[in-house]
Design goal:
2 copies of one chain form a homodimer. Chain A has 352 residues and is α/β, with parallel strands linked by helices. Chain A folds into 3 domains: 64 residues, lambda repressor-like DNA-binding domains (434 Repressor (Amino-terminal Domain), Orthogonal Bundle), CATH 1.10.260.40; 127 residues, Rossmann fold (3-Layer(aba) Sandwich), CATH 3.40.50; 130 residues, 3-Layer(aba) Sandwich (Rossmann fold). The first copy, chain A, is 43% helix and 14% strand. Chain A is built from 13 helices and 12 strands. In chain A, the strands form 3 sheets. In chain A, strands 2-1-3-4-5-11 form a 6-stranded parallel β-sheet, sandwiched between helices. In chain A, strands 7-6-8-9 form a 4-stranded parallel β-sheet, with helices on both faces. The longest helix of chain A is centred in the N-terminal third of the chain and has 16 residues. Chain A is elongated, with a radius of gyration of 27 Å. Chain A binds a DNA duplex (30 and 30 nucleotides) through helix 3 and helix 5.
DNA sequence: AGCACTCTTGTAATCGATTGCAGGCCGCAG
DNA sequence: CTGCGGCCTGCAATCGATTACAAGAGTGCT
């Protein structure tokens, strides 16, 4: 026993596989565990001399505090869960990047989950919260996991991004969808278009009626009568956008421009145009929404509405962390600015 | 004090915000914490009657064991880290899906990390391991995070997917890249092509020389002399593929077919062809590698080599979990089958 | 010398589980 | 009646940290 301790004092640790604990460090540095803990957490409380000695041992043993033990004691896991409905969707990746950046600045770990809108998966990530392995939740899907209290004191720290659940107090970081959509359609109108179709989003998502409202608003602002035949719902996918656009282009009096509720369906619309032998933008203008990476490399490159995705992610993470750390931010509603990115899929139109 | 306990016994818990602990359950059910723990973990050790009583209290209080406390005691976090070099890359999303499926079957949590090949980010995720918040590591990037022991008893459970670090004992789940590449090029040869270009991967990635070797092998098998001028390195991106293909198509005697080291660069090649006014597949055949989603919706849809990505992910997770749970699987090398998916970007060629 | 104060450090309780060990109870065989 | 073995259950140690509290040393003042 003495022997073992002496080996430890000389060499750091006996078993190379085992990691040093705070007790090892304390023993080797000849102080109590309390002092080791303080040296790391609040060095100003420890004398110069002791601090030096402890730090030396910390270095030589490669000691890292066990996060589980710390989290258990402090009741703070220093980790947050980010629930993404679909990893494959490029719209989310940039948001997540922003989140990670902000999280690591405050030394929070990010536990990312791909739910595919599957309640089972949502629940399984929700467990991490109930488990105490995470302190808060960032939701990109506009839906609460089943069994998660939406309000009241039992609600864990949550922030919604982009989409929310109407009627609850959860903070939200978003853009002004109606205004952004109106801006996009307004741009088409300014180019001379009068007959403008709308490839809408799926009815189940809040975004859809919001962007549709902006579309309608833009038309009405310049006295263009709203024609329901020019609106076809899709599902935010390439395939859905292609089919919806095809229906619009097959109309007896087809639109000269399309406003698509997101970029992916706009890509579908570009394909539908090509399917029919229409040139974009000469015969048809197409405008998307989101500014995903693909928009830049599509043929032609897509004119679209850019959301400041990384900033939105960072902002949401910021609000979440501050909530976790005790600020009362309930009911916050943060609106981020958007930007129209003009590329090659739109051009002016003179009545023929 | 007595008062509080009576309220608890009647109503479950006093404060609705606070979560029940094993002590609460034990007290209310009038048993020891040991019995509660056993009821949940090894019910067969507990008498029918007691089990019923405990379970009732567990239900009514909504008790969930604190994972941190358990992990601290059992020294098993029941969580693994998955390091993805680039979330935006659709190649990885399917792999990750397979991993998640297998993990949740064994009740492991998946902590996903987007490293962007940044050593800083890698280190920050590595901390979760050193921290004891995770039990193992799944690497999709073919590189070890800095400071991670590659071999010896100190090496944590790790599995590589798709790419590995040559010369270390870490298990690997992969495909046979040379053989798969050879199959693809062989297909072009069978279609009648004789002058076949190769848009290669970046030199830094192991995949690149492997696929290049397969390309060369296929040519040599039918006595087509290898021409270095027909090989241009790109970087697995759309842009890089486009530029590389442009160089090949600008050759005095341009190739009639291109084998691209991945789908994204193949998309770039398709664009380069269109830039030059070439029709695919009539004037140029293009074949990719990976079979990402985009391959199906590109114009024309891309002929490519499909990797069983979900299965690879699931398999890798399987090996990792078994390693964590004590099986000695060091040095394992699992090779998964690939499949040639013929779509519209390739057609037969008769010498003109 | 005595007292008050600051500066450092250690003691020990605590977070919420798991689990080895021991003891109580019961039935049954000798 | 005694002893033994099997079934349940509880006691208490343990995982590895944090932190309230107390105690001792040193300083300065009266």
């Amino acid at each position: 026993m003495r022997q073992e301790e002496e080996i430890r004092e000389a060499d750091g640790l006996v078993e190379p596989g085992a990691r040093a604990t705070i007790d090892d460090v304390a023993r080797i540095a000849n102080v109590s565990t309390a002092t080791v803990s303080r040296t790391l957490a609040r060095p100003e409380l420890v004398s110069e001399e002791t601090r030096r000695r402890v730090m030396e041992v910390v270095e030589s043993t490669g000691y890292r505090p066990n996060a589980l033990a710390r989290a258990l004691r402090t009741r703070a896991a220093q980790a947050v869960i980010v629930l993404v409905p679909d990893f494959g969707n490029p719209f989310y990746t940039e948001i997540v990047r922003g989140m990670e950046r902000r999280a690591s600045a405050s030394d929070y770990a990010v536990l990312m989950g791909n739910t595919e809108s599957d309640p089972e998966r949502e629940r399984s990530y929700m467990r991490l919260l109930l488990d105490r392995r995470a302190d808060g939740l960032l939701l990109l899907s506009g839906r609460l996991p089943e069994g998660c209290p939406a309000d009241g004191p039992a609600r864990p720290p949550i922030v919604f991004v982009s989409e929310d659940l109407p009627g609850c107090e959860v903070p939200l970081v978003r853009i002004d969808n109606p205004a952004a959509a109106e801006m996009a359609v307004r741009y088409l109108i300014d180019l001379g278009h009068r007959r403008i179709g709308h490839v809408a989003g799926p009815p189940g998502r809040i975004l859809s009626p919001e962007r549709h409202a902006g579309y309608r608003q833009a038309l009405e602002a310049v006295q263009i009568p709203y024609d329901p035949a020019l609106v076809v719902a899709a599902d935010f996918t390439f395939k859905g956008g292609r089919a919806a656009a095809r229906r619009l282009l097959d109309l007896p009096e087809p639109p000269t421009a399309l406003f698509c509720a997101n970029d992916e369906s706009a890509m579908g619309a570009l394909r539908a145009a090509r399917d029919k032998g229409l040139r974009v933008p000469e015969d048809l203008s197409v405008i998307g929404f989101d500014d995903i990476q693909l928009a830049e490399i599509s043929d032609p490159p897509l004119t679209t509405v850019r959301q400041p995705r990384a900033e939105m992610g960072a902002k949401a993470m910021d609000v979440l962390i501050r909530t976790i750390e005790g600020e009362a931010l309930s009911g916050l509603d943060i609106v981020m600015p958007v930007e129209l990115v003009v590329r090659g899929s739109t051009s002016s139109w003179r009545p023929r």
